[in-house]
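Can't paste images in this forum, so I'm doing it all in text. The chain is below; anyone willing to post the predicted structure tokens underneath?
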Amino acid sequence: MIKQVIPLLRRVAFRQWMAIAILMLMVAGGMGYMNGLGRLDRTLYDQFMRADSRPARDDIIIVAIDDYSISKLGRWPWERSLHAKLLNRIMRANPLAIGLDVIMPEAEHDQSPGQRADDRALTKALAASKLTVLPIVVASAGPGLKALPPMPDFLNAARGVGHIHLELDPDGVVRSVFLQEGQDDKWWPHFAVSLANVAGQKITDTNGNLPGARMAPIPAGSEASPHDSWQRDYQIQIPFAGGSGHFRSVPYAAVLRGDVPDQFFTGKYVLIGATAIGMADTFPTPVSGTSGVMPGIEINANILAGLLDHKSISIARPLQTALFSIVPVLIALSSYLLWTPRISLLITAALMVLTMAVSYLLLTLGIWIAPTAALIALAIAHPLWSWIRLESAISYLGQEFMLLDQEPHLLPEVNTERAPQQVEDLLEQRINAMRVAARRVRDLRQFISDSLNSLPDATLITTIDGHVLVSNQFARDYFAAAGIRNIDGALLPYLFSNMSTPQATNTSANHTFSWWDLIDLEHVSTLTSGTSVQDQQGVTC
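Text version of the structure:
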């Protein structure tokens, strides 16, 4: 009966495992194909990004329009002649490139077109430097967007322009940027890309493509045609080097006053922008830390550092994330069939840690694969499997105990039924049934032991392979006298090895009987009439 039940249980367990495996793999693969679970994955991404900090580049300097400079130079906006003086001073040091992140789409206020002395001074400084990049911003224009470049004089005098638009995720955090944006078939590189180009740094591949994910072109004839919509391309996740204040910076007023030596800017990328509270274009970032936000000029410094280090982060494709989510879940599910629940739980926990470690390692290598889908599937799979197996075990044991309880009781029992008002759940009923069955087994063993002790002869009960299970007191005393103190678990041929060679009464003439025949099923018939031997004292047994 038992041999028939065990294969059935194994088949049932395998069918249950297959059902859970299919369900969990569909869950993991489906969530992974969605390429992340929103806020959960973004939270892990931010934590990994903070852990992946790296030293700031020595060749990137920020000239900060900070609170100190405003206290020294007066309220913003400043006269543009100050910007001209600053550029002329920085140019003495022969920097690699200068990024003046100040929006100047119109002529300075309170000046007529013929009296723009400050604008003319800045135009002259821009033309003389031949290294300065100015920003292009995106402005709302009714239902759409439009580019807002610097005023024409500045645009013509500057070495280059670049957009400073940043991409906000649904939670309002800046994690990515498009390295190229445009409108009306005209494209502008990002501010950091223009700075690298001015310095002669090659950041494109052999085909002239920038790093990042390409955007699908807008199909012809669609409502949003390329001529009236804002277009973007080459999206990268920003490889932040560190939090706010990570890059070296000096106050605008200190540079203008000459407190900073000229050689400080030699061979450097100089980014000029606002960091003062209340006037800077600040954004939440994964590495903002306790401040909560980071000035746009520092974000641009991080983007530039990533481009110069050829370090960018791209998001894995949905199919890649789905496969990444399925593999650890499949390994965990396999362990449920091969190992004990405790070991499989440890394997599941190890796989969760390993999944996060691999995701972090890939992020440092420039690929972000969201791990939350795999983590959730792993967290669900083991409790679900344990619950189903526990339910099966309780059901099977309950049925067996009920059948056992229906069998005739070999020994009399005292009525121990509980009061009818006592309420028990199913698990408690199974436990009580097991308690009763265990007590009956102990009582039956005690009954057998007492019965053996009442026999007048030495008596042993053994397993099929000849090991002693139960013995009476006469047997223990007899073998103790022969020098064998403990006979429990002993093998019969060794217990009888000191006795004379036995001779069974019905043994054939051509067969020599030995004590090992006692545990050989082929010689059972030779023992039906018993055997006679003598021990060391000459006593016939």
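The first strand starts at residue 60 and ends at 65. The longest helix spans residues 372-406.
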